[in-house]
């Protein structure tokens, strides 16, 4: 099982989600950004912890949260046509899903 990159990418993605939610709140006063960023980021941090511990729940949790975030940010990018923050979160989410896919194929 190759666990080199999946926990690290999941950890980084979780931190970005939390930071992005805080920035969205600070810039636009969006409580939705703050709450959703915190919840999704916290779930990704939990998933990263589970991945480091080699728990079977880690890849599933990280995959589901990452996929949901990619979908949400694709919709946001289509509406706003602004790369930041949606484009960055899409790219990080896809990278995270690719890193997680190595765990599912090696089982």
Describe this structure in words.
With 107 residues, the protein is mainly alpha-helical. It is 83% helix and 0% strand. It has one domain. It has four helices and no strands.
Oligomer: single chain
Would you count the extended β strands for me?
A: 0
Shape: globular
Q: Uncertain regions: pLDDT < 50 for 5+ in a row?
A: none
Secondary-structure-based class equals: mainly alpha
Mean pLDDT: 91
Summarize the model shown:
By secondary structure, the chain is mainly alpha-helical.
What topology does this entry show?
Blueprint (H helix, E strand, L loop, with lengths): L5 H23 L2 H22 L4 H24 L5 H20 L2
Provide keyphrases for this structure:
107 residues; mainly alpha
